[in-house]
Amino acid sequence: xxxxxxxxxxxxxxxxxxxxxxxxxxxxxxxxxxxxxxxxxxxxxxxxxxxxxxxxxxxxxxxxxxxxxxxxxxxxxxxxxxxxxxxxxxxxxxxxxxxxxxxxxxxxxxxxxxxxxxxxxxxxxxxxxxxxxxxxxxxxxxxxxxxxxxxxxxxxxxxxxxxxxxxxxxxxxxxxxxxxxxxxxxxxxxxxxxxxxxxxxxxxxxxxxxxxxxxxxxxxxxxxxxxxxxxxxxxxxxxxxxxxxxxxxxxxxxxxxxxxxxxxxxxxxxxxxxxxxxxxxxxxxxxxxxxxxxxxxxxxxxxxxxxxxxxxxxxxxxxxx
Length: 321
Hints:
Blueprint: H1 2-31, E1 36-39, E2 47-53, E3 79-96, H2 99-103, H3 108-140, E4 146-148, H4 157-164, E5 174-179, H5 181-189, E6 197-201, E7 204-209, E8 212-217, E9 223-224, E10 231-238, E11 242-245, E12 251-257, E13 264-277, E14 280-282, H6 293-296, E15 302-304, E16 314-320
Helix pairs in contact: 1-3
């Protein structure tokens, strides 16, 4: 009976993962205004490279109709390459006894539901935390989009507004602000109205505050402890600022072990996803392949590859806790 139940577990676990992940991804993309974009697209190899045309706006010039018609230097049409990096993760192994379910007469489907939900939430949390860590690193490394009042002041709505002002006339592109729960409550305490809750998945919430979407998640990168402790960080992002590609192809191993008093089963999974930042390229030389969390969170591993800061992922505000 126990082994029959495990066969059912193996058969239905993977389809249940795909269904739940698709549901969570679709809900989050819609609710977050597309600033943090999760897609099911995959890529072959360690990197995904995309080419785009360099800006030609600098070729604009003034013409004197009455001057001699002399030679004019041309502007070359060139393209710049942006690199996204593939990141590896794992889940488990989870150890349990199949007899646990039959002993208490619980259906196998209940275990499938619980474990697949936890797996999806763990993957989604990893993808979001890693994407936010990359954005904090890349944006903070760009002085032109960083409003840093730390060393004496905390983040207020005015500080966030000052950070968004760094986009100038393009500040309306900043669709979504990302902050921790404690930071959000500080702003709410300063007479900011908290309206409808739009989306919930594990420890991630998306709210609408004063007409601007606020993603509230206690991502470690938003609460700095090293190298400078006790800092809050708030991101304001454009649409498509963080792109996370999940090919939806986790490798799952379910192993049944005998030789003990009771049969044991372990479940383990490997997965991968690819991350990119708008206006920034992963530095293949400095950052390398299959990066660690520390390498992803290193600002110099994300190189700005566009001319104008207004064409990058967004801005960041930094202040004391």
